[in-house]
Amino acid sequence: MEKAHHALAVRDAAALVKRWAENPLEAPQGINVSAVADAIRDDNSARRLERLVKAADEIRDLRVSRGLTSAVMERFGNPTCFQHFAYCGSMGDLAGGGKVARMYDGYCWDCDPFMQWPGRIADLSQARIRHHPDSKPFDPEFLKWSPGARMVAGGEAWDDQKYPSAIDLAEFYGGGFFRYLSRGDRDKAFASLMFAVHMLQDLCVPHHVLGTVDLGHAAHERKALARWREIRRGLPRKTRRLTWSRLSLEAREMLDGDIGSATGFRELGEAAVRATALRLPAPDRAPSPTRAETWKMTRQAIACAIKAFDLIAAGLMPRQTLPA
């Protein structure tokens, strides 16, 4: 998802939780709506969470040498974004570069089944990619335990490297919330939580579960953002009320189902992958970024954000731990 789309989904999740807190009969049965509402109870904290969820695309904890490789990567984003995928298994095992990507595994450039000209260029470069724990907004002592630190040690060419999955990252950053909270660092706690939310929301994008940076990936996300903005702002007041009623109903159905039954961030990530896979028109095809597809993708991203807040509310969510 585009950074602005992540932020809008978090904003709409906050609005939906507020609606449920005021109308409990609309709320999902398994979500502690009052505790989640406390976490995003005012506009200041909601805006802060929107900024934090976007920041997950800006961290530079994976770095590759300059030159041809860097130029190719910039076509798709910074190297850290290779950790924002989790394969759904729809095409069986994906093999390439001596690696195999199986269901719920992360991205591998050489395993990408839709790679076109960049795949040929990749073979010309032997540049190494390495994890760097000295990356803001987190401290090195935290990031040195990340899935990227374990998997991306700098020993392989960047295109042969198999990256940790967004499920791994969601679990890591979800745990980071409690780590930082126990140390009294509320800012980093909520930054870590929103990084986990970002990973979960990326798993609502079909390309992220098909394991590809190609297949019209960037254009799909841009169009989806534009369509969601149209849905949010281009409606007359009466229709807007109906739209929110529909969103409330459909998000509740998702949270009363597979996504809502998750008991941890890993289970939630796997549920998000499965839900996205159900939207694929074929095992090797992504749906077009139509208005209907954008609705389904964003509805799911909103449900994932609410469930992530519910997971931490089940552990620690006193008012004094909210971000300033």
Task: Report on the architecture of this protein.
With 324 residues, the protein is mostly helical. The chain has 14 helices and four strands. The protein has a two-stranded antiparallel ribbon. A two-stranded antiparallel ribbon has the order 2-3. A hairpin with a 2-residue loop joins β2 (94-96) and β3. The model is unreliable at 316-324 (pLDDT under 50).
User: What overall geometry do the principal axes of the alpha carbons give?
Assistant: globular
Number of helices: 14
Quaternary form: single chain
Q: Which class of secondary structure composition applies to the elements?
A: mainly alpha
Report strand %.
under 5%
Largest sheet: 2 strands, antiparallel
Relative helix content: 40-55%
- Overall pLDDT, averaged? 88
Strand neighbour order, sheet with most strands: 1-4
Number of strands: 4
End-to-end separation in angstroms reads 27 Å
Instruction: Give, in order, the helices and strands.
Output: HHHEHEEHEHHHHHHHHH
User: Which stretches are poorly predicted, pLDDT < 50 over at least 5 residues?
Assistant: 316-324
Rg, rounded, reads 19 Å
